[in-house]
Amino acid sequence: MDIGVIRESGPSDRRVALTPPVARRLVEAGHRVWVESGAGNGAMFHDPEYLRAGAQVAYSAAEVLRRSQVVAKISVPTPAELDLCPPGLTLLAFYHMAVADRAVYQRLIERSITAVGCEIIQTDDGRLPVLAAFSEIAGQMTVPIAAHLLRSSCGGRGILLGGSPGVPPARVVILGAGVVGTWAARTAVAAGAQVTVLDVDPNKLRRLMEHTPNVATGLADPDLIAAEAAAADVLIGAVLVAGAKTPHVVTRRMVESMKAGAAIIDVSIDQGGCVETSRLTTLADPAFVYHGVTHYCVPNLTADMGRSTSVAAAQALLPYLLLIGQQGIEKALEACAELRRAAHTHRGKAAAAGLAGMEKT
Q: Topology of 2-112+305-360 in CATH?
């Protein structure tokens, strides 16, 4: 089978969906791998490395898309990219369909593309293996970002995240004890911060405490969230409802009760954000201030950690690419419930029950 990867077109996005070692694995399995020239440059994977791995380098995204039966990318494809896709192509990407532009969905249908949402590939026990690879990195990234936002020169409270002898540490409140929240908590505790994690699921909190005993936990309800937000120096939003828009669990009034110079990092912004006052920002202009509180709301946060994220993404996608390459997309969807759950569109129709209504809107 012909499997391709194209350059990520988003601003400041340095990731690539396939690395040279994973390309080699695909080639060794009998597939042809097509790589758009320069696709891996942002992650420090250059064309000669792909060539040594046995891949073919093409000089445009259009050529890769034309030659491939399956294409892997990370960010949601643009309408222009979709217009280059041949009918019947299988396209794996992070679509975030609950908040995506309707034009993307319409083009997927019109061009009969099988769209597999990497963020909703889900195992029988509820794990999201591809998304988790990104979330582990995003969770760790929040802590150095928080330390930076707390600096006086950034408009922060001028607080050292981990404190020092005689100086108390920053108070970090994390909403959500999933993968992002867990890794944010571990990293913040290791940095010396005072950490509280809130979640509605006591089992998640129990698992978190088993591995990170120095963290405080609480069962999230509006009153507790409000109290913890008011006391926080840093609030990290790590709420996820798989495949759905994230609810606003932190209201505008809660934000207005926070300390001047406090910071919010809303990692949930990819799915709409869990803080009512959040709005999309970019890596080039990542933060804004509302009511004295700095908001950091960059979607695709891991785009700034190009190499590490690319390695994690390629490794997570490899089993699914091998399965599709071996069996073809039709049989792969039949054989693998994880892929079936993640198929947004197939053969020009909505494949996920939750999307069926979009055809009529």
A: Rossmann fold (3.40.50)
In this prediction, the residues of the chain whose per-residue pLDDT falls under 50 are 353-361
CA atoms of 258 and 28, how far apart (whole Å): 55
- Whole-number CA gyration radius for the chain: 21
Secondary structure letter of residue 250 according to DSSP: B
- Beta carbons within 8 Å of 42's beta carbon, 6+ residues apart: 8, 13, 14, 15, 16, 306
Please tell me whether the overall predicted TM-score, pTM, comes out greater than 0.85 for this model: yes
User: With contact defined as beta carbons under 8 Å apart, do 234 and 171 qualify?
Assistant: yes
User: Cα(5)–Cα(19) distance, rounded to whole angstroms?
Assistant: 10
CATH class entry, domain 134-304: alpha beta
Tell me if 2-112+305-360 shares its fold with 134-304: yes
H-helix or E-strand spanning residue 87? none
Q: Which residues contact 144 (CB under 8 A, 6 or more apart)?
A: none
Could you read off the pLDDT of 192-247 as tens digits, one per residue? 999 999 999 999 999 999 999 899 999 999 999 999 999 999 999 999 887 789 99
Strand partners, 235: 173, 264
Sheet holding 287-290, edge to edge: 216-219, 194-199, 171-175, 234-237, 263-266, 293-296, 287-290
**Widest CA span in the chain:** 65
Catalytic residues: 96
Strand-by-strand arrangement of the 56-58 sheet: 56-58, 32-36, 2-5, 70-72, 90-93, 114-117, 343-346, 349-350
Q: Catalogue the E-assigned strands of 206-319.
A: 216-219, 234-237, 263-266, 287-290, 293-296
167: which DSSP letter?
B
- The pLDDT of residue 102 is 84
The residue to which tokens 């999933």 are assigned: 178
Delimit the domains of the chain by residue range.
2-112+305-360, 134-304
Q: What is the pLDDT of residue 352?
A: 61
Angle at which helix 179-190 crosses helix 129-149, to 10 degrees, equals 40
Instruction: Please state, in angstroms and as integers, the Cα–Cα distance from residue 169 to each residue in 13, 33, 196, following that order.
Output: 33, 50, 13
